[in-house]
Amino acid sequence: MNDKHIGLIYAGGTIGMTLTAQGYAPMQDFGDALARLFAAAGDTLPRYTLHEYAVPIDSTNATPQDWQNIGRDIAARYNDYDGFVVLHGTDTMVYTAAALSFMLQGLRKPVIVTGSQVPLGVARSDAAQNLVTAMQLAASDAINEVAIYFNQRLLRGNRATKVSTERMDAFDSPNYPWLADVGIHVRFNRAALLARADTERFELPDYGRQSVLPVRFVPGMPTAAVQAMIDLKPQALILQCYGAGNAPDRDPALLDMLARASAQGMVIAACSQSPHGRVAIGTYAAGAGMTAAGVIGSGDMTFEALFAKLHHLLARGLAPEDLRKQLLRDLAGELSA
Ligand code: ASP
């Protein structure tokens, strides 16, 4: 374990916060607190070098630009370390993890993203457990992908979703098995882990200028609400449909507006409001017209992975037709065949 060297990136989140008069905010001496924790774990942990961001953020404020900064930092230091741990807030952790998986395709070492529900040093905090285990996992030869470690679960980053604001098991991956179950022993699910690629295929296009907007259907929603989103002219629109990818079709205006937007080059993807299962547009007559309107079903991708993937493909500058095809290709284990 000791001969491995881990790059530890501290981007922000509850894990490094302390209670102030205004509520939780980043603590001053987080680096020292980490050093004390890791020293107590002794030689069960690999060596590490801490890269603290000048302004650690609450991940609620994260933007695609922040995803990109982390991705580029890892890429720039890739050869200096045997693995990486990224400390991040839980609120948007899965978006960042998914985006990292698209930037760092063909990874040949672990990138483990973690955080905590309760800050380090607070009674009953989950931070120490998550941190120590994430460091050990980052030194493992079995992992060649971006994964989230949280409360005894190792999950594929682009398959995870935050399922609880309160429980210590804040994340799950409804459409993909856990990569490892971590109790007294670490039990890897070898069949679920990505195999080590022959070579890295990093893609680090400029993030930040893409516009992807979501529309969540609710019963009785006026179609004008969808039109209002389309009028904002995003490059891509995500329809958060019901069940297997169904959208209300009593008002034909909806399909017309979607067809017009698609014809004008807007990429429109449908996902499901149900976390488990896949989208199969046309299973029900209601919504079957969406395919003709150019809407693409997103298979079993999570909403967060779909959002990050759209950003990534748009950043690559793909034309709408190519982008629609790429969206249905599995890039980093985010989509089942
Ligand atoms: N709001 C915090 C964040 O996402 C929550 C957390 O870290 O758990 O940064």
Structure description:
This protein has 337 residues and is α/β, with parallel strands linked by helices. The chain folds into two domains: 5-202, L-asparaginase, N-terminal domain (Rossmann fold); 212-327, 3-Layer(aba) Sandwich (Rossmann fold), CATH 3.40.50. The chain is built from nine helices and 16 strands. The chain has helices at residues 30-41, 64-76, 93-103, 127-138, 223-231, 253-263, 289-292, 303-315, 320-327; strands at residues 5-12, 17-20, 23-26, 47-57, 83-87, 111-114, 146-150, 153-156, 161-162, 171-172, 180-182, 186-188, 212-216, 236-241, 267-272, 296-297. The strands form four sheets. The chain has an eight-stranded mixed sheet, sandwiched between helices. The chain has a four-stranded parallel sheet with strand order 13-14-15-16, with helices on both faces. Helix 5 links the parallel strand 13 (212-216) and strand 14 (236-241). Helix 2 (64-76) crosses helix 3 (93-103), helix 3 (93-103) packs across helix 8 (303-315) and helix 5 (223-231) packs parallel to helix 6. The model has no long low-confidence stretch (mean pLDDT 95).
